[in-house]
């Protein structure tokens, strides 16, 4: 990873607590699915998945969840808001679309995101669309409530023009929600009961990633064909002994 100066284009509040940040960089390349580090004046380095695809350069898009005013994420947003340019380190991560999985010709590529894990999966999804990928791609995005959905403009465009499937699933639905509800893995397995010839990218919290992986492995998904940044920094919790 190298240090790069990025110009701040915009900081926009997408819903009650998710910000979309757009940056401009020069002389930079990355693979869909990689991340960058925001360098704070305190010396802290905070990782965020790149939410845009390589063909959108020189623009980079980030999605930042601020759940608490005292959080590190809030420090990141306030730093970017008050700056014309920031320092980033990039690119990082080996959970990306150029990792060789496409050469294995999976029957289906499952792109599974929880919350702002959407950023990484959106980058991969958009890249495959741009590359006119002819395989089967299914994007599943899980959120807690309908109020947590963001990036509606992108979702509407993707539904219109993509050849791939795209589903938003909420845990706690209400009368105004007309989409799918329940657990994320349940939606995946309802559509793909046999995962023995599938590959998956999973992005989200440690608990979400491993909880989803356990369910999908039980239906045939090979760990060797499953990719997540979580694998690099958080070991799989021990499964309870029966």
From TrEMBL:
Q: What is this protein called?
A: FAD-binding FR-type domain-containing protein
User: Start and end of every FAD-binding FR-type domain?
Assistant: 1-98
Q: Does the keyword Oxidoreductase apply?
A: yes
State the family named in the UniProt similarity comment for this chain. Answer: Belongs to the Fre/LuxG FAD/NAD(P) flavoprotein oxidoreductase family.
Q: Where is the signal peptide?
A: none
Q: Which domain of life is it from?
A: Bacteria
Where would one find coiled-coil regions in this protein?
none
Keyword check for Manganese: no
Q: Which UniProt keywords apply?
A: Luminescence, Oxidoreductase
